[in-house]
Design a protein that fits this description.
It is a single chain. The chain is α+β, with helices and mostly antiparallel strands and 64 residues long. It has one helix at residues 2-30; strands at residues 42-46, 53-56. It has 2 domains: 1-31; 34-64, no CATH class.
Length: 64
């Protein structure tokens, strides 16, 4: 009988793990890429002052 209880507990843990990881995986897999005016991908946002500004990097020269 303890063998059945172990399987139930293990199955419950996998269900909880899936429920916790599903939203994170969805955001990582289906997030649209964002690009600046010059076509550079935005890698972050600077929240200094009144207006946030995007930080983009040129993929050829690696300049910010």
């Amino acid at each position: 009988m303890p063998h059945c209880d172990y399987k139930k507990v293990l199955r419950w843990r996998y269900c909880v793990l899936f429920i916790l990881l599903a939203p994170i995986l969805t955001l990582l897999l289906f997030s649209p890429p964002v690009h600046a005016d010059g076509g550079f991908p935005i890698i972050g946002v600077l929240h200094a002052g009144q207006r946030p500004e995007g930080i983009a990097v040129d993929t050829r020269t690696h300049m910010v």
